[in-house]
């Protein structure tokens, strides 16, 4: 049975029932044939024994009156029995008294000694039976009969052949029946296997196995269907929850978007509208300074100077805010940018900021990236400006700009200075609007630059982060994605 | 192997020859030896009426009337034997009435009186046997004859019936001649 492991259950069941029926049939056949063989022999012996009995009854007088002619006549009655081939009567001395042979060549064996009881012996083709001849309970002789059993053997062989034929036919019938029965048993199992495979292959939990019933397989199918139903329900609940979440996210996003747009519009218009009165203040402050009365008054001039400076500061603030706002609103026009050229232009433009200072520039070979030229220029203008600003107490200031490739194929540009640096625990505040890590007394600025940088990079699908330590300089890493893709949602 | 077989066969053959030579030398049965045996065997194929024996232990009696021609043969034949589970008694008779006999052998010496003897015997169930010539014609039941030195016998069935004796068909089958057959009704 072990060799059958790889065959279908149907075949296993068939083989099993075939084995059982073959063994049962073979045993039954052997039993019947043995019984028949014994019964046949017994019947044969009984038959010949009866003949012996009859002969002995009729031959006793012949023996005692020494009349072998009449004894022979008695024996000749055996002609009527075709199976008897020879017979003989012996005296008590063992001498043949009368011998009859159907075929002159037939031999009649003599009894070894006078016998009191009947005995017989089977040879391969004959039965030899000796029967005592009794007269008044005294043994007066022996009759021996030789009966041909070849006919019986042939008959028995025919019978064995028939039995074998019946055995074979029964086996074929058993095979046919067991195949059908096995198919009936294995069909629901195969169906279940098909359904399971279909569920696994197509992730389809809506299918159901048929054939629920009271037996083990039926219960298995029912349980499996219940399991499928539960899985399907769970899946649907999960999908529903997911859809609901999605819907809510979308809703919130729309709300956020509109709120953001309102806010942007508000801040833009506020910034824009603030510029007009500021221009008036600035213009009239200039006129006031040219006024003779004020020009002669140093105190008034100093105070007027503070006003003008504050107005300029406020103007810068408004410009930055507008810029920041614009960076979120204007459309991106991406092209391939040579960062080497762009950086050199930016540094050149920043020259007035470090006039008279010792600055060491290290600019590594930089790659091309895809981006909006104006916006990327703003990014590096801000970063270079910051680097120069926070390193102005260094003699000399060292600013290093290098490029490397990130693990996902993105391009990372590092801008490193040896300036004041900052404490990393405030790193999360670095890129917020109006978030400043240093007082404006130490380092002037509006606190909008890095927020603008981050906004631009987000719109390009990239990012910016910083690593620093107090008084040990800061490094800003600008990342451009490996391939141009749309900016993540909500980065506008 | 074959040598051994041959030797055994030769030894057996020699033994067989010796035996066949020895048997006639030991006992060649005489005519009256055979007749004695026949007398005994007749008793087995003849049925006497049930009231023949008065007592359960009464012996089966064989009588010889006249000169006994058997010599020792009868005693030898009948010793230690039974008929119908009864011991056999041998009784020689001279001229007495043979009323207590079951088998009566009438000697050839009584040839002249045979008709008278048989006349006297009418009635009781006695199997009369004799080797007097044409004994059955005289009304005897079984008569011995000789045929080529072989002992044969004749049966008078009417006489047997008259005596109330039933003779087995087997015996009749062997008889040389059966007279007085009953007419089948």
Radius of gyration of chain B: 21 Å
Element order, helices and strands of chain B? HHEEHEEEHEEEHEHE
Strand order of the largest sheet of chain A: 2-1-5-4-3
Helical content of chain A stands at: 40-55%
| Structural category of chain B | alpha/beta
State the end-to-end distance of chain B. Answer: 70 Å
Number of separate strands of chain B = 10
Question: Separation of termini of chain A?
Answer: 73 Å
Global morphology of chain B? globular
Write a structural description.
The complex is a heterodimer of chains A (492) and B (185). Chain A is built from nine helices and twelve strands. With 492 residues, chain A is α+β, with helices and mostly antiparallel strands. Chain A has a five-stranded antiparallel sheet. A five-stranded mixed sheet of chain A has the order 7-9-10-12-11, covered by helices on one side. With 185 residues, chain B is an alpha/beta fold. In chain B, the strands form two sheets. Chain B has an eight-stranded mixed sheet with strand order 3-4-2-5-6-7-8-10. A two-stranded antiparallel ribbon of chain B has the order 1-9.
Write the layout of secondary structure elements.
The complex is a heterodimer of chains A (492) and B (185).
Chain A: H1 9-64, H2 68-76, E1 84-91, E2 96-101, E3 119-122, E4 126-135, E5 138-148, H3 150-202, H4 216-290, H5 292-295, H6 298-329, E6 335-338, H7 339-349, E7 359-363, E8 368-371, H8 373-390, E9 397-405, E10 411-417, H9 449-459, E11 463-468, E12 474-480
Parallel strand pairs in A: 7-9
Antiparallel strand pairs in A: 1-2, 1-5, 3-4, 4-5, 6-8, 9-10, 10-12, 11-12
Chain B: H1 2-26, H2 31-44, E1 46-47, E2 60-65, H3 73-78, E3 82-83, E4 86-93, E5 103-106, H4 114-121, E6 127-130, E7 142-147, E8 150-156, H5 157-162, E9 166-167, H6 169-174, E10 177-179
Parallel strand pairs in B: 2-4, 2-5, 5-6, 6-7, 8-10
Antiparallel strand pairs in B: 1-9, 3-4, 7-8
Properties at a glance:
heterodimer, A: 492 residues, alpha+beta, 5-stranded antiparallel β-sheet, 16% strand, disordered C terminus, B: alpha/beta, two-stranded antiparallel sheet, 6 helices
């Amino acid at each position: 049975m072990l060799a059958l492991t790889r065959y279908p259950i149907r075949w296993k069941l068939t083989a099993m029932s075939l084995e059982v029926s073959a063994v049962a049939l073979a045993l039954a056949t052997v039993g019947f044939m043995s019984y028949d063989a014994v019964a046949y022999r017994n019947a044969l012996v009984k038959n010949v024994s009866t003949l012996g009995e009859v002969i002995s009854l009729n031959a006793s007088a012949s023996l005692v009156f020494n009349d072998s002619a009449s004894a022979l006549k008695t024996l000749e009655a055996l002609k009527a029995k075709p199976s008897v081939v020879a017979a003989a009567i012996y005296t008590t001395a063992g001498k043949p008294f009368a011998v009859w042979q159907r075929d002159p060549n037939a031999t009649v064996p003599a009894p070894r000694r006078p016998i009191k009881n009947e005995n017989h012996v089977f040879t391969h083709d004959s039965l030899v039976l000796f029967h005592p001849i009794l007269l008044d309970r005294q043994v007066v002789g022996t009759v021996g009969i030789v009966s041909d059993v070849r006919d019986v053997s042939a008959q028995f062989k025919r019978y064995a052949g028939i039995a074998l034929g019946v055995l074979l036919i029964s086996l074929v019938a058993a095979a046919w029946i067991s195949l059908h029965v096995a198919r009936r048993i294995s069909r629901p199992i195969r169906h279940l296997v098909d359904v399971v495979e279909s569920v696994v292959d197509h992730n389809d939990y809506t299918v159901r196995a048929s054939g629920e019933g009271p037996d083990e397989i039926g219960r298995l199918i029912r349980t499996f269907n219940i399991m499928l139903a539960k899985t399907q329900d769970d899946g649907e609940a999960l999908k529903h929850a997911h859809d609901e979440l999605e819907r809510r996210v979308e809703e919130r996003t729309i709300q956020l978007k509109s709120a953001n747009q309102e806010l942007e519009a508000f801040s833009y218009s506020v910034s824009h509208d603030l510029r007009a009165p500021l221009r008036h203040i600035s213009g009239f402050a200039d006129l006031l300074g040219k006024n003779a009365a004020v020009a002669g008054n140093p105190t008034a001039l100093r105070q007027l100077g503070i006003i003008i400076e504050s107005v300029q500061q406020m103007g810068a603030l408004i410009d930055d805010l507008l810029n920041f706002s614009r960076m979120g609103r204007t459309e991106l026009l991406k092209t391939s940018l040579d960062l080497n050229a762009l950086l050199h232009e930016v540094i050149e433009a920043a020259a007035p900021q470090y006039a008279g200072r010792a600055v060491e520039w290290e600019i590594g070979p930089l790659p091309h990236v895809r981006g909006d030229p104006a916006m990327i220029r703003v990014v590096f203008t801000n970063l270079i400006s910051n680097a120069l600003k926070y390193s102005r107490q260094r003699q000399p200031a060292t600013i290093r700009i290098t490029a490397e490739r990130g693990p996902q194929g993105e391009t990372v540009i590092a801008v490193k200075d040896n300036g004041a640096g900052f404490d990393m625990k405030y790193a999360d505040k670095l890129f917020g609007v109006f978030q400043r890590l240093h007082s404006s007394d130490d380092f002037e600025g509006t606190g909008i630059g890095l927020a603008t940088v981050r906004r631009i990079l987000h719109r390009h699908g990239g990012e910016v982060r910083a690593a620093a330590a107090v008084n040990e300089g800061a490094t800003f890493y600008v990342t451009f994605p490996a391939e141009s893709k749309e900016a993540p949602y909500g980065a506008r | 192997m074959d040598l051994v077989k041959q030797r055994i066969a030769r030894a057996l053959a020699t033994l067989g020859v010796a035996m066949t030579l020895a048997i006639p030398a030991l006992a060649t049965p005489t005519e009256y030896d055979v007749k004695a045996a026949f007398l005994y065997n007749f008793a087995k194929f003849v049925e006497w009426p049930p009231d023949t024996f008065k007592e359960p232990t009464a012996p089966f009696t064989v009588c010889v009337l006249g000169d006994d021609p058997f010599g020792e043969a009868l005693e030898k034949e009948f010793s230690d034997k039974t008929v119908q589970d009864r011991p056999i008694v041998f009784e020689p008779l001279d001229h007495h009435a043979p009323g207590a006999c079951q088998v009566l052998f009438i000697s050839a010496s009584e040839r002249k009186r045979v008709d008278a003897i048989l006349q006297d015997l009418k009635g009781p169930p006695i199997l009369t046997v004799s080797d007097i010539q044409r004994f059955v014609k005289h009304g005897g039941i079984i008569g011995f004859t000789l045929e080529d030195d072989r002992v044969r016998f004749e049966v008078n069935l009417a006489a047997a019936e008259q005596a109330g004796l039933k003779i087995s068909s087997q015996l009749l089958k062997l008889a040389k001649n059966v007279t007085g057959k009953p007419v089948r009704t």
